[in-house]
Amino acid sequence: MWLRRGFFQWLFPAAIVLPAWLLIGWAIFNASGWAFLGILFIAAPAVLVGELVLALLIRARPAVRAQRAVSWWDVLGLTVWQALVVLFGCFIQPVSFAVLTAAIIVFLAVFWSSLAQLWNGARGSLRRMAPGTGPADLPSDNEDIRERARQHAEVIVVQEVGRPGDGRNIH
């Protein structure tokens, strides 16, 4: 449980740390100027937005909010995706394109997994809403109300009469 709670706490800081790592990795591993422009304008913003979207999707689930812990599928998906982002930030030229492609595929898998888990959690909430309990299910015909009042035999009618000038209508 501590690992799942740790990932819960890590969701939003990761949105800052991982794009920053891409810039730090560029400086440490002496990547080219074109790589810097790619990171600055494409990779870092994409990782930032991707992390925020995943964090909001994961935290939107009722089970995650109640336990303050992500699911094991989230732990697996986030671990793989974030490891690929860190590996991409190491700028290893022969595998850079393969790592980038794998990171995009894993992100999409985690995104769809989060959506599916959110949908399943919401579907459980919708099942609890039984038919016949909402305001649309109340009788709309006055005859139905009168008939129910006759069946129950005791009806108390309270008429409120306002004083002149207090803003109420006098009936």
UniProtKB/TrEMBL annotation:
The keyword Transmembrane helix applies. It comes from the Bacteria. The chain crosses the membrane at residues 7-29, 35-58, 70-89, 95-119. Keywords: Membrane, Transmembrane, Transmembrane helix. This is MFS transporter permease. It comes from Microbacterium horticulturae.
